[in-house]
Each structure stands twice: as C-alpha cells, then as structure tokens.
Amino acid sequence: MGFEYFHKEVQITGKHSRYVDEMWEQNQIQNSFFKRLVDLYTIAPVIGLRARRRSVADYSDGKRTVPVTQMLELEKDLEIIMQTILLLDDTTTLSVEQKIDRAFIGPTTEEEFKANVNLFNDYLRGGIEVLYECLIERELTISDDYTDQRIGNMVAIFDNPLV
Amino acid sequence: MNFTQLKMKNFMRYKGTNVLNFSCDQEKKVTVVLGDNTSGKTTIAQAFRWALYGVLIETKYDLKNEISILNNEILGEMGPNDYREVVVEIEMEHEDKKYNLLRKANFSRKYPKYIAKQEYEKLTMRIKEKDSGVTTLFDNAGDDNGKNKGKVDDIINELLPINLSRYFLFDGERWNEDKNKRNDIKESVYTIMGVSPIRLMKLHLNELGTYGKNGVIKQLRRRITGSGDDYNNLNDSLQNLLSKIDDSEKKIVEASKNKLYYEQKIADSEDILNANKTIELDQQKVKSLEKDIENSEKYMKSYYADIVTSFSKSYIFFAAPLLEEVISLLKNVELDGKDIPDITNDTIAYIINNGICICGHKVIKDSYEYDTLMKLKQVIPPMAIGTLVGNYQKELKRWHSSSSEIYKVIKDKADLYQGEKFSNEDNENEIEKINKRIDGKINFQQERLKMQSNKKNKQIEEDKIRKEENNIEDYKRKAKQLEEEISRLQDKSAKNAQIERNILIAEKVYEASSRIYKKNETTILNELNNIINNNFKVMFNEKDKYARLEDNYDIKLYYNKINEDDTYSEMEAHGLSEGEKIAKNFVFIVSIMELANLKKSDSECIAQTLPLVLDGPFSKLSSVNIELISQVLPKTADQVILFMLDKDWEHSKLEKYTGAKYIVAKEKEQNYSKIEKIY
C-alpha cells in the first residue's frame, strides 16, 4: 500500500554492467541480443529465478541505467515477475501464506519494500550472469542447428532447462 | 644683333612698299625716324612687332581687335573678288648669319563694306650663312613632312625674346605708365638671368600658392597618413595565410598526383584482370554472385532483427515453467478463508468512520472491536486475495500460451537466417572457385591483391585532398578578411614609402635650385641697381633724387631728406611729374638693356645683345634730359632705332651718332604715310 515497484530507475553496475554491454548496444540491434535495455531487465530476473541464481551487486567500473520510462511501459509484466519471485523464492523462512501476503498484499513497511526490491535485483543480476554464460560464453556445438553463434545460442537457451 | 632693313607693304597706314635701312655702323649706330604725331611712327614699331611676333599692341587710337593691318586705301581699291597682301619683311644680322624674316597676310574684302578679312598668314625665314652662302628656308607652318613647324618662332625668340620685347621695342604710349608691372620686370630680369627654368622648378616644387601650399612638396606631405605597425602585423598574418594556402595547394597537387597514380595502377590491374575474353563470363558470374551475397546479407540483417525483437519478449517464455511451480505452491493454500463475501476495504472504512458495526455494535476507537476491524482492514486488499491470485494466475497462463508463439517466430527466423547464411557461404565458395580459376589462368591473384591495396591508397589520397580543400576554404576566407583590412592601410603605407622618397628628392632639388637661384638673383639685382643708379644719375639732372629697383621689383624714386640733426633720411618720392615718370621708365629700360648686354658673355645666360627700338616722346622731357638720355642710349645697345618728333631731335644732339635718318610724312590729302630717306 503506497509502495510502488519499478517507479525508480535502476542501475546495473560493475561486472554485471560489463556483461550487459556485451549483450546489448544501444541502437545497434545487429550487435545486440535485446532491443532495449528494459527487455534485458525483464528477462534476466526470470532467468535468475529459473536458474535459482542470485548475485550481489558489484561496484567496480561500469554502469548501465534502466530508464524509468521504459520500466513503466512494462510495469504490469514486471509486477507479475516480482510477484512470482516473491512467491517462489526459498531464501527466507516465510510460510506460503506469508509469501502470498507479501506477493499480493504488498509490503507494509519500508523495510519490506526494500527487501523485496533487493531480492528482485539479486535475481536480476543472477539472470544477467546466466544469460552471459548462455549467450556470450557458450560455444556452438555439433547439436546446434545454427552456425551463427548469436542465433545458435539464442535458440539454445530456449531449450536449456536452466536448472 | 642688328636690324638691317624693314620693308613694309600695305601695312597699316603705309600704302605700297616702304623701306627703312638701319645703320649698323659701330660708331653711328643710331637710326632716327622723325615725324609728327599720328604720322605713323608708332606704326613702324607695330610693324616690327607684327612681323616678329604676329601681335599688335593697343594704342590709344585703336583697340587691338579693331586694328586692321591692311592699308585702308588698298582696301578701298578692292573689289569683291580681289585679294591683297600685307607684307612686313625684316632683315637682321647676327654673328655669322643673315636672317630674312617675312610675314605675309592675305586679305579679301567684305565688299561693299570697308572691312578686310584675313584669309591666311604665312611666316617664313631665310637664313644665309655669310661664309658659305648656304641659304636655308624655314616655313613656320612646317615643311612638306610637317617638320620644323614653329621653327621660325623659335629662332625669333632666341634672337629677340618676346619677354624682352617690351624693353627693346618700346612704344610711345607706354612712356606714361607709372607702373612697370612687377611681373614684367621680373620676367625680363629672369630672362636676362637665363635661369627661368630653375625658377620655374623652384616655383613648382615649393612656391606655388600661399606659403607654397600648392607646391609639390606640400602636396606630397598632405598625402602621408596611416601607421606602420598595424600594416606590418596584418601583412605578416596575410603572408602566413598565403603560404599556408600555398602549402595546402602543394599538398593537393601531390595527393592528386598520387591519386592519379593509384587510379592508373587500379586501371592497369583491371585491364589485366579483364584482359582475357574467356574469363569475361566468369567475371559476370562473380559479379552476380556478389550481388546475391549482398542481398542475402540484407535479408540476414532483417531476420536477425526480427529474432532479437522476439527474443526481447522472451520473459514470457522463460516465466512459463514457473507458472507450474506457482500452481503447485498455491494448491494447498486456503485462500478463500480469508475472504468475507463482499467485504472490502471500503466496507471496513465505512464501519470505522461511522463508528458502528453492521451488527449494530458500537465501534469506539482503540476498543477491541476497533482493533479487530483495523487488522481485518489490513488483510482485506482492495480485492480479494483470491481474485488477485486468480488474476495473477490468469496472466501467467496467458504468458504460457504465447510463449510457444515466441519460440516459433524465433525458430522460423533463425531458420531463414541460416538458409541465407548457407547460401552466402555457397556463393562465396563459388566466387572463390571462379576467382581461383581466373587467377590460375593468368595468375591474377597478385594483381587482385595489388588492386585492393591501390584502392585503399587511392582512398587515402582522396581523403587528403578533401581535407586540404577544406583547409584552403578556411584560409581563403580568413585571407579575404585580412586583405580588406590591409587594403585600408596598405594604400597609405606603400604610398607613404614612395611619398617620403619623393619628398626627399623634391626637397633636395629645391634646396639646390634655391641656392643657385639666390646666388644669381642677388648678383643680378645688385648689378641692375648699380646700373640703374648710374643711369639715373647720368640721365637726369636730379641730384637729389635717385631710383632703385626694390627686392620686389618695384622701381621707386627716392630723395634724401635732410633732418634737423643734419642726418639724411630716405624718403620715397611721390607724385612724380610726367617727366619724372618717363624718366623712371627710361632709366629702367636702358638699365635692362645694359644688363642684358653685360650678360651676353656669361655662359649661364641665353640673352643676346639687343637692338633698341624706341618710340619715345622726348618732348615730355626737358631738353637737358633729352640730351642726357640720348647720350646714354648708344651705350645701351649695339643699335638704336629711334622715333622722334622733329622738335625733339635737335635737343637730342644725337646727330653725331646717327647713321641713318628718315622722315615719315603723311601725304597731304591722303590717308596714308610714306617714309622718306634723308640719309
């Protein structure tokens, strides 16, 4: 009540921003896996949750900022993702009911709000790492149907259970 | 020089031909022509003037433009178609030459009026060398070739300068003039001095106008303006830019040369590569394949973009399996229990605000009922949780169903992309094969490599050219600005240097000429004054008065006044009598003549000895003066020709100096005059 997710710009720093740079170049779709940065921002936490991968922020060189305007466009979908994370995250001792509460009633305190946001960002960063591994680091194999590494890896990630 | 003869034909009052032979005797050098007033003595002087200079002077009887030189009698005899001529002939001797000057004017008559119309005038001179007898004829209008035009005038001016004619050819009417115009005197002195050219130069350089303001030097000074430093700085900057432009242009030339070289090389390579006819088809095939590859690449780009666009939505796909997890999570949770049918947040708010429950029980703040309601408020969301979860699940399901769509699109595009890629690879292989075939035939590979390299180099040179061209544009723009600034200063500065030089030269010349002139002028004026003084003493009986030529060329008469303390004061004599005026002029004439004669021997001088032709009203002078003056005259010139009234002749006592004597008489009842020789 009163706490709104995705109304504040997000900064991706350190190694995660460097990973981002390798997967996305502004206005250079031929050099990117994602059209916009917000797309990566949306996909990565899902991947992170799928792969149960979280990562803390790294504050070394590099910074990428997701513009609020873009986030607001996908606000609804991002909320779904947030709720999913809040429901499925196992890192706390919360009961299911409590998870449901935090997912659907929403945070009642600032602390809760921050905790939820941090959780989301942890999965975001984890997801960035996974994506980086799957799209950039992965080498094509014989079982890949495609000879273009980018395309091959994009298709491959769809097939990857990620667990 | 001497006049030997004057011959007049139909000249003014002398009908027919009249001749005067002048005495050239060294002892008896005076020729006298006696006659009454109006008899025609003045006319003889006119005849001289007309013959020598083609001019007449005004007398008190005739205005210059009304004077007709054709004798009236002759005019009267003329019919409408008649022509008569007026001739004046003067013979002169000078050194070893004899000069015969002839001026002739032809007249018609504006019949029946007594008006003569001059048709033409001719001036000739015949010069005879006394020794050789060789005679040369000059026509003042020029000979057949147009040469020697004005030659006669030149000779006359050398022998008898017109500037001095007012003195050696002195007319009667001018005796009364009180003012020998300063400039006339000056001019005559200058002519005698023979430094007129220098004087003119001095004038021109620094003496024209008040304080010489119209002179060359001052004019030049007025033209100097502007400063040197600004000009120099701007000029330096300009030179800098110009040399930069130069450099750039040189670079362009260089690069153009290089570019040309590479183009040639490329063309050579192309020629070699194109040389063989049989590979032409292969070349075409290659071109076609290259085109295909180009197109493929376009498609591939397009497909890839589509893939990325879809991939950007892939959270839907990736979230789908999570839905199952959520479902299984929520399966065992009793969500409905939390719901009180149709009780919403607003309901609770309503109850609390009204302070009464639906069951009728009062709800007081901080009471048990109040706290329960508040807690309930917290757990009742705007919507029922079940609804929320339901919605959420619905959304996830939706995602799930679209996820395969995304996957499909990506796969399809990826396949297409791959297809193009394979196709390109095939084409490139094909091209390579064909090129190998071509290369193999005539070993083009090296050539191909060379051509690639030269294409690169050509591009580099083109880039250089473009860069320098841009630079030049920039420099030219700046240079134009500078040039405009400089031209405002430059005119002044370049001219300045020249002007300064010119001023220096002009000043030096002026200094030098001034020195020379001053020296000459002072000398001459002193001489002249001495002469004047002496002559005055001799020619006049005035012991108390004397004449002097002032520095400003005024001739003044002075007398000495005795002061009370027995000292003398110089006083200018005013209110001169007729006689005194005449005397004053006379003295001057004579003095000039004497000076001129003195200067004859000076090499600086161009003056000649001049004969003296005097038409003098000696009657105005006292007999004593006449005598005195007359005594001076023979000393003044080598030859004296005098016109006198009868009555003055006796007083002159010139008989002993007279070598020829004539009388001019007007024929009784006739309108013309005749000269008769006495001896």
From TrEMBL, chain A:
Q: What is this protein called?
A: Uncharacterized protein
TrEMBL record, chain B:
**Keyword terms of this UniProt record:** Coiled coil, Exonuclease, Hydrolase, Nuclease
In what residue span(s) does the Rad50/SbcC-type AAA domain sit?
A: 5-294
Q: Spell out the InterPro entries in the cross-references.
A: P-loop_NTPase, Rad50/SbcC_AAA
For molecular function, the Gene Ontology terms on record are:
exonuclease activity
Q: Which ranges of the sequence are coiled-coil?
A: 231-299, 450-502
User: A Pfam family for this UniProt protein?
Assistant: AAA_23
Assembly, in brief, is:
Heterodimer of SbcC and SbcD.
* Record-stated family: Belongs to the SMC family. SbcC subfamily.
Q: Which PANTHER family match?
A: ABC TRANSPORTER ABCH.3 (PTHR32114:SF2)
Give the protein name, as stated in the record.
Nuclease SbcCD subunit C
Q: Which organism is it from?
A: Sedimentibacter acidaminivorans
